[in-house]
């Protein structure tokens, strides 16, 4: 009990003290309020450096964007063959995952036509602004640039007919979370088209960290709920493998 209160009690008795409290002349002792503990948002898990025995490559920064638009790319990678193998149809919703400055985005936009749309996803705003310049210059209206995070591609659930990932997957520092989210985003019959430089082929002139073997790709995709539905082995430097959801009963061509 505060000293002043004790003193008054001995001098005047409890009735006078009660009267003083009641009329507000004497402030009652302040009771400390329990404050709610601050809520802390769940921290991100640490990005991986290895996944299932494979070393993850650092992502290619926007400083290398010119390499993606180099003149020799068509001759080296036969990009027209790759895009044809995707069998994109007008009106579809497709995604260029890790679109960079939009080499494939622009081609996909043409294929889906004005009734379709391309979700162009990347984690680097600089890449998206390079893409944006091209979209404005070419007056392309059916592309939606999406700034994502390394753990979340920010795709709508159940809506995407095809996700193209060219030379990107091996850079994912959260491969499981990315695979889970991409899987969820697929529409019935929807597919992921994965292109990676062939690790098995020493004549492909790309750094080892940026190449993948078929065996490693299957090792990582299958336990994450994705089944191989088709393979296209006609590209000069890359594997092109198509995956669907393992619980998808929609018609998919058999794997070769
Ligand atoms: C080598 S570039 C390939 C660009 C494009 N696919 C092409 O073939 O022209 C890799 C791109 O993937 C992006 N990337 C890396 N990790 C990513 C992630 N988790 N989500 C989305 N984009 C990612 C990088 O920012 C970079 O723009």
Describe the structure.
With 256 residues, the chain is of the alpha/beta class. It has two domains: 1-43, no CATH class; 53-245, Rossmann fold (3-Layer(aba) Sandwich). It has nine helices and ten strands. The protein has helices at 3-12, 14-23, 65-68, 73-77, 79-85, 103-112, 125-137, 175-185, 214-221; strands spanning 50-51, 54-55, 93-97, 117-122, 143-147, 160-166, 186-198, 211-212, 226-232, 238-245. Strands 3, 4, 5, 6, 7, 8, 9 and 10 form an eight-stranded mixed sheet that branches. Strands 1-2 form a two-stranded antiparallel sheet. The radius of gyration is 30 Å and the shape is globular. The structure holds S-adenosylmethionine. S-adenosylmethionine binds next to helix 6 and strand 4. The site of S-adenosylmethionine (SAM) has 23 residues, from helix 6 and strand 4.
């Amino acid at each position: 009990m505060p000293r002043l209160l004790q003193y008054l009690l001995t001098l005047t008795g409890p009735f006078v003290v009660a009267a003083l409290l009641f009329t507000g002349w004497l402030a009652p002792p302040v009771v400390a309020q329990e404050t709610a503990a601050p809520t802390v948002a769940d921290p991100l898990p640490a990005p991986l450096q290895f996944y299932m025995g494979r070393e993850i490559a650092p992502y290619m920064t926007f400083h290398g964007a010119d390499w993606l638009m180099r003149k020799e790319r068509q001759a080296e990678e036969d990009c027209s063959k790759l895009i044809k193998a995707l069998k994109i149809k007008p009106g579809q919703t497709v995604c260029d995952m890790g679109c960079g400055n939009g080499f494939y985005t622009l081609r996909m936009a043409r294929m889906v036509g004005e009734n379709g749309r391309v979700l162009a996803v990347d984690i680097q705003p600089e890449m998206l602004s390079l893409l944006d310049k091209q979209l404005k210059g070419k007056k392309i209206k059916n592309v939606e640039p999406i700034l994502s995070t390394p753990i979340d591609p920010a795709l709508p659930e159940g809506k995407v007919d095809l996700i193209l990932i060219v030379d990107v997957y091996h850079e994912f520092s959260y491969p499981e979370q990315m695979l889970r989210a991409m899987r969820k985003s697929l529409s019935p019959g929807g597919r992921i088209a994965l292109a990676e430089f062939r690790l098995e082929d020493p004549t492909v002139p790309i750094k080892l960290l940026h190449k993948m073997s078929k065996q490693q790709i299957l090792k990582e995709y299958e336990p994450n709920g994705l089944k191989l539905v088709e393979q296209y082995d006609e590209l000069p430097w890359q594997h092109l493998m198509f995956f669907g959801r393992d619980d998808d009963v929609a018609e998919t061509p058999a794997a070769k």
